[in-house]
Amino acid sequence: MALALGLMSGTSADGVSLALAACEGRGLKVLAHATYPYAAALRRRILAAPEAKAGELSALDFELGRAFAKAAVRFLKAEGVSSKRLAAVGSHGQTVVHRPRAADPSTMQIGEASFLAEALGVPVACDFRPRDMAAG
Fold this sequence. Notes:
By secondary structure, this protein is an alpha/beta fold. The protein has a single domain (2-135), classed as ATPase, nucleotide binding domain (Nucleotidyltransferase, domain 5, 2-Layer Sandwich). Strands 1, 2, 3, 4, 5 and 6 form a 6-stranded mixed beta sheet that branches. It has helices at 40-48, 54-79, 114-120, 128-135; strands spanning 2-9, 15-24, 27-37, 86-99, 106-110, 124-126. It is built from 4 helices and 6 strands. A hairpin with a 6-residue loop joins strand 4 and strand 5 (106-110).
């Protein structure tokens, strides 16, 4: 049985949600889940991100990456699970732009996953939605 941690933040930008799952073969069982709300100021910056300049967006990307890592460490500690027990982490990130039906379709999720990899010391998968769009 392998343990996996998933992180997600929806377009409401209310916080980061985490789920710990046990995976075996094609089976999956959710063991624990939680949502940690964003501070009001951070939520305002996330909601304003589609109009942000590149430097502001880059800074927010890193800030969210650190916030995701902090939330993951907090969640695992609360559940009494060492990150060494995780086989992998998946992070959808925070959607700031999603235009699948535009003339030039695009999507952007932020929350730099490298901070998760450094904090937890396990492989992190990310950029799911761009890959889905690239695949059609």
